[in-house]
Amino acid sequence: MVVHVYNLGANSSTDISIQWAHLAAPMKAGSKPATVAIPGSALAPKLPPLEVKRRELQDALKVGWSTWSYNMLGVVRLPDSSVLTTALCQLSTQDCLLQTHIEDPAAQIRVGVFAADASYWQFYLGYKGVNVSLSYSGGSGPLNVLAEPQSCAAPVNCSDYALVILPRFAWFRNGDVTVDNATGTVTLAPMGMPNRVVQMTGPNEDLTPHLPRTLDGYPLLSIGLGKGAVGMQEKAAGAVAGAGAEASAAPTVAAISQIIAAARAKEYASYAKFGKFATVKEAVQAATMWNYIYTPAEYGPFLPVSRQWDFVKGGVNSDWAYVIFDW
Known about the structure:
28% strand; eight-stranded antiparallel beta sheet; six-stranded antiparallel beta sheet; alpha+beta; globular
């Protein structure tokens, strides 16, 4: 058992008392055996060497853009915990899919390739009659997101759907969020860490009257799917249209598509060395990576029993949702 004490000021202190009970045999649920103080010889002020190595490994892994949270629609960057949730909304009904996971009864999910370094991943999302391919390039590089409607022929009217970007910080991490409607830009400023600037392929479309009232007051950007594919791209701080000398044009769908295609091709090329087992490599790796998440409760990245399972009691939001069977 490891006990952590966080956020103590220079002049602060705290006392921790731990007791245990020696049991000769298992006891019935609800039993309250007598406890005694744990002897000092059984306690240590430092972590065991193997635990130190494990944490060094985890620290090196919790970096970059990926689907780190329980919600597959939330693309998250570690270690700053910046989140961009790509919600899918039907305007005529004011219904929005704000979070989803594999085997979600509210949506249809078909996952695709997922690179081990999170440089590329893709899945299909079906919701309220529309089918959208969501592709990402991320990892330690800049974020690119491409949303491509797959079924816009009758009876599906893609003009009735929109991609809504909801920026925030996960796990109660501190930071400021700024939205620029004119340029379709989100700036995430995590406390003590570099800013993240992400720009859509077009200006914000004010779809507020067609969105759920539960989203009122939240920073967001929205863009309709009626004209086809849309996307967003991470840019250098200041390199945004209208931002002065360092300004640059808004990203285009064509440019993002090219980046996504290159990331996809690179990932598929990496399977070639496995020969006839290339498809096995692809499937096993994807199955692993789609189940690879992060929560501060487990210190670093880990593989839960199943991504869609949540055994957390009283969780305030899905950031903390997970389950592992550990003994």
